[in-house]
Design a protein that fits this description.
The chain is mostly helical. The protein has one domain. Helices cover 79% and strands 0% of the residues. The termini are close together.
Amino acid sequence: MLCLLALAWLVLVNLMSQIFSQVPITSQDKQSLLTRVKNIFYRGFYYMLSLVFAAISMALILLTYKMLKL
């Protein structure tokens, strides 16, 4: 069971490092309207992904605590 837990942590850290290495820049006034809207949409998507990863991290912390408590 501890191997699955370690695998879950490794997958989570790997996904986070791969996904959040390319966060789009904040929109600037010199860009076109379409580019600014696209960047706002992408940043919102990354924000939702960060909330999902935070929830998964909390679940893994609880699972780790329960498994190591045994």
